[in-house]
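Per your request, structure below.
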């Protein structure tokens, strides 16, 4: 059974950092395109970042470029989202998901809450 389980969310002050984890089971994460999505309060789901399975090329939405990275640990079958210089507008529930912005997959984790507030 394919499962994605996120962890690592929490409350952080503006300018702080968090690292989200997404543990995958039931498939080999490194051979699939994987993305992070987020949903802020009262807003729709938005794409944050993708790492492609074949070549590990990464993409980021403009608002997080230079602040977020999407590393992957193939040995642990785990995807991460390293978030630095966090802003209040980064507050959202973050989800890892299969697929990319242009070719979304059909699996998504349960989400982890990130709150950026002073």
């Amino acid at each position: 059974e394919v499962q994605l389980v996120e962890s690592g969310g929490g409350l952080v002050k503006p300018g702080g950092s968090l690292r989200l984890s997404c543990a995958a089971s039931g498939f080999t994460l490194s051979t699939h395109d994987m993305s992070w999505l987020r949903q802020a309060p009262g807003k729709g789901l938005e794409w944050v970042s993708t790492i492609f399975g074949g070549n590990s090329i990464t993409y980021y939405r403009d608002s997080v470029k230079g602040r977020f990275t999407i590393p992957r640990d193939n040995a642990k079958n785990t995807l991460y989202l390293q978030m630095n210089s966090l802003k209040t507008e980064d507050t959202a529930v973050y989800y890892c998901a299969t697929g990319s912005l242009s070719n979304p997959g059909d699996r998504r984790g349960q989400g982890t809450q990130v709150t950026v507030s002073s």
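The chain has a mean pLDDT of 96.

Regards,
D.
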